[in-house]
Design a protein that fits this description.
Layout lengths: L8 E4 L3 H12 L4 E5 L10 E5 L5 E5 L10 H12 L3 E5 L3 E4 L2 E3 L7 E4 L4 H8 L3 E4 L5 E5 L2 E6 L2 E6 L1 E4 L6 H5 L10 E12 L9 E5 L4 E6 L11 E6 L1 H6 L5 H16 L5 E16 L1 E2 L3 E3 L4 E3 L4 E2 L7 H16 L1
Parallel strand pairs: 1-2, 1-13, 2-9, 6-15, 13-21, 19-22
Antiparallel strand pairs: 3-4, 5-8, 6-7, 10-11, 11-12, 14-17, 14-18, 15-16, 16-17, 20-21
Helix pairs in contact: 1-3, 1-7
Length: 333
């Protein structure tokens, strides 16, 4: 038996759902390997690390903005993170911009962020896991009692059970010829921008939700998430409509327009150290699949992610975690 055949579960996709499933499956005694095409883990819970000319650095969450904890299991994760501490409560609601007027937050529900950025959540889940990055899976095939997963160079690994934690539009090629339903999911894209400032803007809010703006839906003062001494920084996120209309443009093309949109909301911005733009082609599921995930015991094949509906609170970080935990429970059962 080869080393790959000794695996129990292969997980394609090191986003939060895949990592949550992997952690529970490993705790049950299974040997698990997680594969991902990126250089790191966490998927859209992404943090851009920026080095500055003065030797300091900045961390900007240009994907998932924060996470909530409405369920017992997520609350346990939060409590462990607060005690460790790699996690902090960031805010209890955000200011709202509408027709040029800013109102104060009112909902009072806690939002959490890791001190080092949202990607630290995935890194925390990944502790002790066997993870292989830089692998783009192009084929999934059953050979006897084992699944074979391949990239462009050939078979990468084999295992009797496979979990796919990838955006629904990328599932089709992998599931061709298999008798399993591909979820009907639609996504909204998102352009995001980050800017590291030399001085802070004049504002008291940690983040601003924009309603009815033609370009932006979110502006965050990222340094309010970080330890004292972090350089002032903003993250901007464009609306789905604007992102879709500008999806195929380059980061260099869209960055000036996103910064100009921020100036029209905030006024003149202080001088900056650096700025960047990033495109998320599959940012937010706008039409999700029912249920917490898919598990086909006959095929020993499972699907998970925030494109499923484990509860009634919308697509978010907690939904991804719940989906992964649910799928691990189906497999161990």
């Amino acid at each position: 038996m080869t080393a790959e055949a000794a695996l129990d579960v292969l997980i394609v996709g090191a986003g939060l759902a895949g990592l949550a499933a992997a952690r529970d499956l490993r705790a049950s005694g299974r040997r698990v390997r997680v594969l991902d095409k990126s250089r790191g883990v966490s998927g859209r819970a992404a943090t851009r690390r920026v080095s500055l000319s003065d030797g300091t650095g900045a961390r900007l969450d240009h994907g998932a903005r924060f996470f909530t904890a409405r369920h017992d299991r997520t609350q346990q994760l939060v409590q462990a993170g607060l005690n460790d501490p790699w996690l902090r409560e960031w805010a209890r609601g955000f200011a709202l911009w509408e027709h040029g007027t800013v109102s104060e937050p009112t909902d009072g529900h806690p939002r959490y962020v890791p001190w080092e950025g949202m990607s630290a959540l995935g890194k925390e889940l990944a502790h002790g896991l066997e993870i292989q990055t830089g692998v783009t899976i192009t084929r999934l095939e059953r050979q006897g009692s084992l699944w074979e997963v391949s990239d462009a160079s050939g078979v990468v690994a084999r295992a009797p059970t496979v979990i796919l934690n990838v955006p629904a539009p990328q599932l089709g090629p992998l599931l061709t010829g298999l008798d399993i339903h591909v979820p009907d999911v639609e996504y909204a894209p998102a352009w995001a921008a980050g800017i590291v400032l030399r001085n802070d803007i004049e504002a008291r809010w940690p983040a601003l939700e924009l309603r009815g703006h033609p370009v932006l839906e979110w502006i965050a003062r990222e340094h309010t998430k970080r330890p004292a001494g972090h350089p002032p920084a903003l993250v901007l996120q464009a609306t789905p409509e604007w992102s879709r209309a500008n999806l195929e443009r380059t980061p260099d093309d869209v960055l000036p327009e996103l910064l100009e949109a921020a100036r029209r909301v905030l006024g003149d911005l202080p001088d900056s150290h650096t700025a960047f733009a990033h495109r998320w082609r599959y940012a937010t599921p706008t039409h999700r699949a029912p249920g917490a995930g898919v598990w086909d015991a006959t095929l020993a094949l499972g699907l998970c992610g925030d494109s499923f509906t484990p509860d009634a609170h919308g697509p978010r970080v907690e939904a991804a975690l719940l989906s992964g935990w649910w799928l691990a429970e189906q497999i161990t059962a």
